[in-house]
Design goal:
- The protein starts with 13 loop residues before the first strand and ends in a 34-residue tail after the last helix.
- It is mainly alpha-helical.
- The chain contains nine helices and three strands.
- Strand 1 and strand 2 form a beta hairpin.
- The chain has a two-stranded antiparallel sheet.
- The chain is globular.
- Helix 2 packs across helix 3 and helix 2 packs antiparallel against helix 9.
- The longest helix is centred in the last third of the chain and has 31 residues.
Amino acid sequence: MQVAGGGVAPEIASTKLNNGGHMIRIERFFGNLFDDRDVSSEELRSFAEDHIGKLTTAGAPYAAMKTATEAVFAPFDEALGERAEQIGSLGGNTVTKNDVVQLVRTKIRQRRGRVVDAFGDTSAEYREIFPQGLTYYTRATMETMAQRLDYAVEKFTKYQAQLGADLVAEFEGLRTQFAAARDEQVDDKGAVSQARGRVRETRTALELQLTDNVLTLAREYKARPEKASEFFNQSLLEDPDRNNEEAQPAPTGA
């Protein structure tokens, strides 16, 4: 599945017929428009959170849609946090690189608030720690994650007095986990498996609500695709690394 350009309406796939015409796949609109495992759960979370913010800005006419979306967003967000905690409790050689990458994305989002509390989100210190905003870390690829973790540890160490030694220790631990997982990865521990299952379950509920929102808004603004960007930010679903975080860990040596 691809979420369409301009903001979010689903792509209308078509098939060329023998007579040179095309067949529009109307049945696509009867499916789950966000059932795409190329979109990581962290990306979907960012997309949904941004969408909720846009519904808030749009005001009272969309209050019911906002409430319904928040109701399925909250357990999904909690499930992501639970998965991060379970992965974080394992040793570095018992998790996959994908696990650690997703853990870093969750942790940096959670710890951003501490930086904002200490310095404000327009300060020179904030820009130094987040040179490209959160995406400096959340869009890191397998190839750049080690460098990003080195950078985070360096900056958290520099501002340890304001941010706390525990933050340095946490990201030093993440760096160690990632380094170990690069060479040895398996052992899908039971608690992590359950946490992953919870993410998948709550994610599906959120995907279906977002699908409902897309179709409802598309019906309201028929033939006005420019309105899509007022409610959705498609770029938040695009990850340059395209890792499938929901897949089971590959066997050692794979």
